[in-house]
Specification:
With about 120 residues, the chain is of the alpha/beta class. The protein has one domain (about 5-115): STAS domain (Transcription Regulator spoIIAA), CATH 3.30.750.24. The protein has helices spanning about 25-35, 55-70, 85-90, 105-115, and strands at about 5-10, 10-20, 45-55, 75-80, 100. The protein has a five-stranded mixed sheet with strand order 1-2-3-4-5, with helices on both faces. Helix 1 (about 25-35) runs parallel beside helix 2. The protein is globular.
């Protein structure tokens, strides 16, 4: 996996993941997710629209990142327009675990709404 592209929008870090997330590419991604979720109140959006494949190791990285963020009163959202990825989440019992959005604008709009009302 090439280095993920990161962008900061307000208090939110947007990470675009590309290519395949599997047993070979997961370790550097896991290290980056640990760094991004190390502090309190981390707010992450993982853009998976350019991800072609994700295996159980990759799903594990996403689950750990979500758990770390929430344990520190943060948030992790996924952006995907892939019906196949959504089916995988449902099949693995993770559909209700992740906050999933169809577009980056939708995920970021929800950030603004939470900040405005919170």
């Amino acid at each position: 996996m090439p280095h993920p592209t990161e962008l900061t929008v307000g208090e939110t870090t947007v990470v675009e993941l590309r290519g395949e997330i599997d047993i070979f590419t997961a370790p550097p991604l896991a290290a980056r997710m640990e760094a991004l979720t190390a502090g309190p109140h981390s707010d992450l959006v993982l853009d998976l629209r350019s991800t072609a494949f994700i295996d159980c190791t990759g799903l594990g990285v996403l689950c750990r990142a979500r758990n770390r963020a929430e344990a520190r009163y943060g948030r992790l959202r996924l952006v995907t327009d892939s019906a196949g990825f959504r089916r995988i989440l449902r099949a693995m019992g993770l559909a209700g675990v992740f906050e999933v959005h169809s577009s980056l604008n939708e995920a970021l709009a929800r950030t603004s709404a939470v900040v405005a009302t919170g």
